[in-house]
Amino acid sequence: MLYSKLFGKTKKDSKKYDSANATYLQKGGFIDQVMAGTYTYLTLGLRVLNKIEQIIREEMDTIGQEVLMPALTPIGNWQKTGRFETVDILMKATPANIFAKAKNDTEYVLNPTHEEIVTPLAQRFVLSYKDFPFALYQIQNKFRNEPRVKSGLLRGREFRMKDLYSFHTSETNLKEYYEKSKEVYLRVFKRLGIGKDTVISLASGGSFTDDYSHEFQTLCETGEDTLYYDKSSNIYFNKEVAPSKAPNVNYKDEGMLPRKDVEGKGIIGVGELAEFLNIPVEKTTKTLIFETDDNRVIVAAVRGGYDINEDKLRKVAKCKALKLASATTVKKVTGAEVGYAGILNLPKDIEIFLDESIDNRLNFETGANKTHFHSTNINFGRDLPKPSKFYDIKVAKAGDLDPKTGVEYQVFKASEVGNIFPLYTKFTEAFNYRFIDRDGKEKPIYMGCYGIGPSRIMGIIVEKFHDEKGIIWPSSVSPFGVHLIGLDLRDESIKSKVGQVYKVLKENNVEVLFDDREETTAGNKFADADLIGIPVRLVISKRTGDKIEYKQRKESKSELLSIDQLLLKIKSLKIQ
Amino acid sequence: MLYSKLFGKTKKDSKKYDSANATYLQKGGFIDQVMAGTYTYLTLGLRVLNKIEQIIREEMDTIGQEVLMPALTPIGNWQKTGRFETVDILMKATPANIFAKAKNDTEYVLNPTHEEIVTPLAQRFVLSYKDFPFALYQIQNKFRNEPRVKSGLLRGREFRMKDLYSFHTSETNLKEYYEKSKEVYLRVFKRLGIGKDTVISLASGGSFTDDYSHEFQTLCETGEDTLYYDKSSNIYFNKEVAPSKAPNVNYKDEGMLPRKDVEGKGIIGVGELAEFLNIPVEKTTKTLIFETDDNRVIVAAVRGGYDINEDKLRKVAKCKALKLASATTVKKVTGAEVGYAGILNLPKDIEIFLDESIDNRLNFETGANKTHFHSTNINFGRDLPKPSKFYDIKVAKAGDLDPKTGVEYQVFKASEVGNIFPLYTKFTEAFNYRFIDRDGKEKPIYMGCYGIGPSRIMGIIVEKFHDEKGIIWPSSVSPFGVHLIGLDLRDESIKSKVGQVYKVLKENNVEVLFDDREETTAGNKFADADLIGIPVRLVISKRTGDKIEYKQRKESKSELLSIDQLLLKIKSLKIQ
Q1: How far apart are CA B293 and CA B463, in angstroms?
Q2: CATH class of B482-572
Q3: Which residue of A34, A90, A103 is in closest CB contact with B96?
Q4: For residue A251, pLDDT beyond 80
Q5: Does B86 contact chain A (CB < 8 Å)?
Q6: Which end of chain B has less neighbouring CB within 10 Å, N or C?
Q7: What is the pTM of this model?
């Protein structure tokens, strides 16, 4: 392709974007922002997106069949699963104006995911045990009512998605398929050039299950996720679910000091409190009161410096939903205003969940359950009985240990490139989709879902592979195989030579972006090539004689090659 | 592909659908309806759709560059062109529930077409005369707030669309490109197998221009459009714009009879009136009163048996919009209740537009402009002056002549497969998008738009190519090149032979759908093959010995071929 004819050339503006992918993809002419969260893929960007999607498609074809569901569907499907009224990223389509309303006043769901559509679809076609297991997938635009969209292609209101759904006659069969899908996913990421740095992490199973779901995370300094890695067991946990044991606090053995109640009105946060009391933060205690969906009031506490992980708390408290208790409830339970709750003298009928980080401390602080007061030098066994059981209800932080192995986690930043969920019977039950077994009986169907976001991956690849000059595409997804630069093009012999090389490369099925601009300086052409990031740059000029200058984007040294040497080189790199 | 593993097999249900494409595409397992107007493309259907889109893509690449714009865009763009408040097929996306509203309470347009998005996109990148002309296209899902969706894939609420937009520095350049686009479109339709029956017809230019737009219409008995063809000039007109001259009415020369006013209360329509008065319908006159957007009241009349074409009337009356006058206005103008308006004794200041079909009649009828009365035996020159000018303001009907040539039209049913519009400066002006010419001055940009609906075409191909047994795909868009049927598969030697043929065909890059089901009867397999409509059917059974039975879907005779003969045959048919 001739660069002079390309729509969407590089931009020289000095505009600041919030991420590397937003910067380089926009300055390089790959994408153009229509509004926060939606982009046009320009010619270069669409080529990258298509290559990513083709790799995903080829691998998904080994475990499923491609279909294409509509984005616009009836509201009824979503009401059946109870998600129409509750999913906060859900959008609906309505008539835009009074004329439209007069013409057809119906509302539809604009799907952010397709469980509600694929389940009844499968149900219309497959009922017999003979036809299981099977899996359907699609690659398609999804819509999400995102409040904060940021980081270029990483989080959008409309984005590309590959979603696969599998159907099984038993949990065992689902799990076998689920394991196989992991291998296929890892193959995809390998082919996309991010395999080396992509790991599987355990993540929340959502509201469907207490099981983990599995995320594919690409380690990346600018990643928005945090992974906790236990080297001894070789397991990565997403921060949101990482089990954690707080490291012991080591102080000099001062013995038990006499309990004191200290007035400290309006002190906010454990940092301020520790300073006020002149004790380490680790000696403070954070106590929160919650109300559950089954109308219980519970108390939860963690060591100062930690936060409560509501997901973990929900599980140990065996409830479906939690919210912070109202001021009235707090007053009723603790006898104090909000801000002075502690673990002392609580009513007998209140369930108390203490994180294990509370344990093994001498002379610690807790709210006094008395307005404006904090109690210090508290000790289990003296000031309150030591509970028979401690829990893990905290958000993990750096320095924590894996409770199973006692090994300190390594902590990594990462970006999610895929997520797979065992859905079990959540959706098939909602649609009353059951199969007829060999014995003629109706039985439940098990389901899994498996997502990869191609547009998001395009952004992550740029986050991962760039330098201060621009992008460095892995060759499998590069918009072109080589970037051919012609210099001194007003010299007819050079112009003819570079035209000839362009022709030969194309005849050899090499995808070439040919910078044929006559009025652009060599410096600008090189800068554009670095910004666009095609893996191989070729230069032909007065200086290169009868050779062609060859340079890889990721390296600094160049060499002069004959056309035959060049073709061999390109073949050996498997560049197209 | 193994038919036994295919998701979306043929359906035996006796459900009635409203069209051939809805019937065969659903029974054949190509598509599945999610709701009226939105479908899932199943594996077979998606293969057809992809082939159609790939042909379109390859041809569009010769005149434009592919990009991909979002469907979800800001409302502001549509307000700039004034279309947000008026376009009645426009939908917007809004939060689906209270949680979503709390998260992000913004509304967006869900685009049915992309002029409002592509114009500012082009403006952000191309301003210099050097970079014109250029054209961008995309293939994408569009959304339309359709009140009545019907006929399978022919009219949907979400559908596939290829839309191309071209930008030019002069009207001449736009027109050159526009003519070139017609050739490219005709190549597309030829490759899709509908070239022979696809014609270009003149159609309405919409609200942008008094010029015609151009439709590509595939002649088809079940088509929803009507074309008027003048063989002498070789021009097809869409009925909505066909200029028309009514054929002369030949009666015996009875001379002028005395005028009579006849009481005929509550007679509805010219048919009933003609019967009541015992005259031919052609002697009646249909008179309507309109109000215009510039506050005029006008009278329009056509010969009984015709309807008024408001588009034509709008043009001769030189106004932008028309609506039927209120009863009050009718009373004021005619002195009578609605239903008795005529062309006699109208106020002097009222503009009257008489269709040419009114002329050349003796003793005709007209409303008496007197409640309950009709005047008969009216003659120009005696009862009212003959107007100096007659117009063409009627909807053409069979039997009409092309006014330019005097030749009677041939009338055809057809389905629209493409539509191209010269948009001129309508959108570029709305966005103040101008280019900088060689002389440094800002000048207007001319624009064209060019649509083809791939999913609609899939439906039209089925409407065009089917028989009572099912679909007969053109080979360029068939989901597979050959349909291989194995019979007697419980016989291991047959099973092994057919497996071998399947392998050899795949090795020769032939796309094969292999019906490998062991428990299905030969009759059902043949019926499925006819329904699915792949151009070539191969059968291997006990009877075929060491040969393979070869039959084309469109023919009834079969022949026995060796594998080598078969491969040659397939090569010669260019089937893949």
Answers
A1: 41
A2: alpha beta
A3: A90
A4: no
A5: yes
A6: C
A7: 0.92
